[in-house]
Amino acid sequence: MTSELIEMHLKLLFDYDNLLNDMDEPSYKKIGFEVRSEDRLSLVRTRNDLLKKLPAEIADAYERLKKRYKRAIAPVENGFCFGCFQKLPTQLLTRSKEIIYCPNCGRILYWRKK
Amino acid sequence: MNLASLLAKERINLSLKPGKKNKVIEDLVYSIKKGADAELIVSTLLKREELGSTGIGKGIAIPHCRSLAVDKLEIAVGRTTKPISFNAIDKKPVSLIFLIIAPPQDPGNQYLITLGKIVQIAKELTKKHIIQKPQTPEEFITLIDQTEKELRKRK
After folding, report:
1. CATH code of the domain covering residue A107
2. In this predicted model, what pLDDT tens digit does every residue of B86-124 receive, in sequence order?
3. Interface contact flag, A113 B119, Cβ < 8 Å
4. Which CATH superfamily, name and number, covers B4-154?
5. pTM of the model
6. Which residues of B are catalytic?
């Protein structure tokens, strides 16, 4: 699996997990966007299928981080990890194509395209 | 947070070409993001639509999701020149679409607050039958601002 494909799968997985998180918020249901439990379950199945497509070590890390922080991926802004708000070491900022983890909190880092 | 202040006239299209639901969502996303980011946002929005339409009834739809591709709440508005099928909860076609994309990290959960506010304002617009009234993006923003202020006064 190429690193681009891994990144795409990870981002989609993350987006689906965010959908699931929001669906569970009482305020979301109050707005009137309640999702039926069988539809929620189908989304859980889709995200599990996506997870299986990832290399095992990345899938494991993602699940572990999700359990710990709720959101496993954090964007990088101005050299900071936006998960733990710690400055990232300069050598990390010259980004290679590999998946990079925050050395402080361990979250998977994401560089937004400008 | 004031909803009108989140609207940008460049992202309000009051003569949106009618078409299939997915294409209309795609067109609105492309007014915010381009390339691979846009494709990813479209995939998530369509996945959300699969779970139940965000057509809230009376001609209004509010597709929404979070995405890593944005660093702040982004809104695009489209009014189609002819109503389109959106599988809305009342089964009626839709002509006004508010599309919302929020960043995953969102202090104070502004995303859900804004989503609730849009639903409230949209319902007010339909109650007064004034969805078709604004002719320019500037008029649209003014209408949203006025409606928001009226709702605030009533509280």
Report:
1. 1.10.287.1490
2. 999 999 999 999 999 999 988 788 899 999 999 999 999
3. no
4. Mannitol-specific EII; Chain A (3.40.930.10)
5. 0.92
6. 64
